[in-house]
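Our consortium's second objective concerns turning raw sequence data into structural hypotheses that experimental partners can test. To show how far this objective has progressed, the report includes one record in full. It was chosen at random from the queue rather than selected for favorable results. The single chain below, 261 residues long, was entered without modification.
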Amino acid sequence: MSVRSILSEARRGALSSLYRRTVSLGDHGPIVSFTFDDFPRTAFTTGGSILERFGARGTYYTAYGLMNTKDELVQFCSEDIDALLEHGHELASHTYGHISCRSVSCQRFCEDVESGSRAIEEASGTNATNFAYPFGHLTLRTKQSLAQSVTSARSIFPGFNGPEIDLNLLRANSLYGGMENVEAAHELIAENAKRKTWLIFYTHDVSPRPSPFGCTPKLLEAVVSCAAQSGSRILTVREALTEAGIQNGNSNGHVRQPVSV
C-alpha cells in the first residue's frame, strides 16, 4: 500500500470515529434508501418513475443554486420541485452553491448549507433538514459544526448504517454505470438484509448513457427490484430516521467527542 493510500485510510478512519452523533436503529431494519445528488432532471423524471413503480420514493439532495443550469447534465427547474413533492419524494439539502468544504472556511461552508436549506424552504415550504456533503468532501470541523444545524449528513463512505447510526456521517454506496455493476449491488442488499441494517445508495442522473456519476435505468430498476424482493423496506432518508425516532432535527443522539485532535 502506498503512503498516500495509508494517509487516506487514516484520514477516513479519523473522520468516521470522531464527532459522532449516534442513535440506535433498533429492530427497524432491513431498510434500503435510494438517494440522488445535485438533482439532474432525469433523477426524477426517470429515476423517480422507476421507484414509484415499486411503491417506493427517493431522497433528492438539492443544491438550489444549480437550478436551471446545464453542463453535461440538465439540472432541475422549479416545476420539478413541485412535482417531486407531489409524488411523495423527499427534498433534502446539498448546500446552495454546491461547494466543497475543503475549498472554503468552515464558517463560509456552514453559511452556504444554511442558504441552501433556506432557499428550499422558501421555494417549497419544505423543511429540508437532511443533508449530503457535496463531492463527498468533509472535514472534522464541518462534521462537528453541522451537527447543530442538520438532522443528518450523508457521506460517500461505503458501508451499512446500524445497529448504531452516526447522524453526522451516514454511510452510502455508489450506484454508477450499467448492468456490469448489478451483482455488487445485489450482494450489498443481501448482506444488509442479513445484518438487518440500513443500506443507502446514491447516484446522480439516470439515463441510457449516464454521466460517470450516474446509472442506467436498467441498473436502477434491477437494484430497486432486488431490494423490494429481499424483504427490505424501501424508505426515504427522512422516513428511515423517523423509524429511529429522529424527527425535524430533534435527536437525543449521543455525541462522542475526541480526547484530542
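The partners drew two points from this record. Confidence is low (pLDDT under 50) at residues 249-261. The chain has one domain: 9-255. Both points have been shared with the crystallography group to help prioritize constructs.
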